[in-house]
Amino acid sequence: MTEQTKTRFPAPLYAAAGAGDLAVEQLRKLPAVLNELSERAAASLRVYNEQASTKAAELRDKASTTDFDALRGNAASVATSFAQIAQDRAVATYTALVARGERVVGTGVVEAAEVVNADLETTEEPAAIEAAQEAKPAPKPRKRAASK
User: Fold this and answer.
1) Is the residue at 21 inside a domain?
2) When you count CB atoms within 10 A of the terminal residue's CB, does the N or C end of the chain come out lower?
3) How many separate domains does the chain show?
4) Is residue 78 part of a domain?
5) Compositional bias (Basic residues) at which positions (predicted)?
6) What is the mean pLDDT of each run of 10 residues along the chain (148 residues)?
């Protein structure tokens, strides 16, 4: 997986920071991508409408001659290899996001966090909280009914 960094922040924090930075970068490209995709979709729609009926007839013929038992047998081995490839890509992507997050967060934040962590370790509970826990008020005595 990833190598342990010299900071006190866990790798998932850096991965989240890297993912956020990558998301901002990609969102800035979104308007141009949307324009390009809408133009390509309009052009493709005209072409695909013309080819749809021809392709449907070809697929009907192919389905009647296909050996589905052979396809089922092959599917398990192919799925296993795809799963391994996906796992390798996920590990590589996670590692890249951790590295990106470390750059985004920077060393100044790490130094500040080390100071805060050191302060948290040495800080004791405030005396007011301790005193409140130790000195619980005594229960009030019950009033007795007056007897005649």
Assistant:
1) yes
2) C
3) 1
4) yes
5) 139-148
6) 60 87 89 89 81 84 81 87 95 91 73 69 58 60 61
